[in-house]
């Protein structure tokens, strides 16, 4: 299941300014939740910043190399496959907003960019390897819904499905940047997300 913080990251990739903060209201799940185990080759180390700085100061790249063969690590991961979501969200003005900030201006910018498929960086689901495609749902268009064969108890049809504790977001303002969680439930394919400040958000 996509977390609210991942959903916010997708919206931030389309339009973000210090003056606004996206608040996720709900995530609609359109396809069954399916997992796949994969293995990825990754590099286990990186070139130290001091080595890079020294190479820059002396004007030579000699010795500035990382051999992938010597530092390769294989990591296992369990990932979601063949996903489709609808993100329901709104934004609020932050304390960095000027007195003349206009909510309508930000909404117009977001709608225009989303309609054209524009983004500041490619949105992703978790890591850059899992790029996310997006499109804007017009206000007068019907809300997409799961296909009839997907309306099963897997998506909370018939009775709500308890997804357990899920990451809501990370509190970057607090000391230690603690993770915030909430009890996630799928009800008829929709996961409602608690508002900021809600007692349902756990530290």
From TrEMBL:
* Domain of life of the native organism: Bacteria
Entry EC no(s): 3.1.-.-
What's any GO biological process attached to this entry?
maintenance of CRISPR repeat elements
Q: Which keywords does UniProt give here?
A: Antiviral defense, Endonuclease, Hydrolase, Nuclease, RNA-binding
State the top-level EC class: hydrolase
Which Gene3D superfamilies does the annotation name? Answer: 3.30.70.2660
Q: Which CDD domains match?
A: Cas5_I-C (cd09752)
Q: Record's Pfam families?
A: Cas_Cas5d
Q: Output the InterPro entries linked to this UniProt entry.
A: CRISPR-assoc_prot_Cas5, CRISPR-assoc_prot_Cas5d
Q: What are the GO MF terms of this UniProt record?
A: endonuclease activity; hydrolase activity; RNA binding
Q: Which family does this protein fall into?
A: Belongs to the CRISPR-associated protein Cas5 family. Subtype I-C/Dvulg subfamily.
The record describes the protein's role as:
CRISPR (clustered regularly interspaced short palindromic repeat) is an adaptive immune system that provides protection against mobile genetic elements (viruses, transposable elements and conjugative plasmids). CRISPR clusters contain spacers, sequences complementary to antecedent mobile elements, and target invading nucleic acids. CRISPR clusters are transcribed and processed into CRISPR RNA (crRNA).
Q: Give the protein's recorded name.
A: pre-crRNA processing endonuclease
Q: Which organism is this protein's natural source?
A: Chelatococcus caeni
Source organism phylogeny: Bacteria, Pseudomonadati, Pseudomonadota, Alphaproteobacteria, Hyphomicrobiales
